[in-house]
Design goal:
The protein has 149 residues and is an alpha+beta fold. It has one domain: Glycoprotein, Type 4 Pilin, CATH 3.30.700. It contains 3 helices and 4 strands.
């Protein structure tokens, strides 16, 4: 009878062991999920920076072909009428072009109806016709170095 009890005890886990494993999983999740979410936000920000670079390159070509810079309404239109920027690039950032003394300013602003709104450091990214890169946080602080660097 004594061997029967030992066999049953060795066949499974007791409640304390299960609780310890659950606590470890909870701690790992609490650390890993926010870090993963931050990396996803950073990847989306990198896509926005790439989109601004694409806009700048296509603006140069558009200027040669049309003798003017493209405006907001030309952003997603297919070439040669527009810049041909893929609309999916504006899923997490609102992409805009506005006239400026330098020619134009392309802006990528975080869409507040997406999870990217938690990226408070790089809330708005801008690139103008001279290549000047700027970024501001959601509170208006200049964060150019950390967002474009």
């Amino acid at each position: 009878m004594n061997t029967q009890i030992q066999t049953r005890r060795g066949a499974g886990f007791n409640l304390v062991e299960i609780c310890i494993v659950m606590a470890i999983i909870g701690i790992l999740t609490a650390v890993a999920v926010p870090a993963w979410q931050e990396q996803v936000r950073h990847a989306r920000r990198t896509s926005a920076v790439s989109a601004l670079g694409m806009i700048a390159a296509r603006q140069a070509r558009y200027l040669l072909e049309n003798r003017r810079y493209a405006q907001d309404e030309d952003l997603f239109m297919t070439r040669p009428e527009g810049l041909g920027i893929p609309p999916e690039l504006s899923e997490y950032y609102l992409l805009q072009i506005r006239p400026d003394a330098s020619g134009y300013v392309a802006t990528a602003t975080v869409r507040m109806d997406t999870s990217q709104r938690l990226d408070e450091t790089c809330h708005q990214l801008t690139l103008d016709a001279t290549g000047l890169q700027q970024a501001t946080s959601s509170s208006g602080v200049d964060t150019t170095r950390s967002c474009w660097g």
